[in-house]
Amino acid sequence: MSDAALARRARIEAKLRERLDATRVEVVDESHLHAGHAGAAGGGGHFRATVVSPRFAGLSRLAAQRLVYAALDDEMGREIHALSIRTRVPDEPD
User: Fold this and answer.
1) For the segment 15-73, what is each residue's pLDDT rounded down to a tens digit?
2) Hey, how many other C-beta atoms are within 10 angstroms of the C-beta on 40?
3) 93 lies in a domain?
């Protein structure tokens, strides 16, 4: 993975930790799986994220995912072309 890709992933993880008070964040860059895809041509990456945060407590899965998208609003469409999200609260089992 290039230094630029590592830096982009680190920025995404940092924003999720900071903006969602996340206790665990794992972001996987899957852009290499989408080489040649029209969205990849624009420079945006494909990512899979797992985010564990107490802020998701009592929220529907959709509402929790909306919080993730809001936290990454600046990156969506530019740095991120596609994002697969798994959200959990801290005491929820894997």
Assistant:
1) 999 999 999 999 998 876 655 555 555 556 889 999 999 999 999 999 999 999 999 99
2) 17
3) no
Containing domain of residue 84, as a range?
3-88
Q: Which two tokens stand for residue 66?
A: 């909306």
- The count of domains in the chain is 1
Q: What is the DSSP letter of 79?
A: T
Are the C-beta atoms of residues 36 and 81 closer than 8 Å to each other? no
Map residue 59 onto helix, strand or coil.
Answer: coil
Helix (H, G, I), strand (E, B) or coil at 93: coil
d(CA 93, CA 88): 8
Residue 94 lies in a domain: no
Measured from the Cβ of residue 50, the count of other Cβ atoms closer than 10 Å reads 17
Residue 30 forms part of a structural domain: yes
- State how far the Cα of 83 lies from the Cα of 81, in Å rounded to an integer: 7
* CATH number of domain containing 32: 3.30.300.90
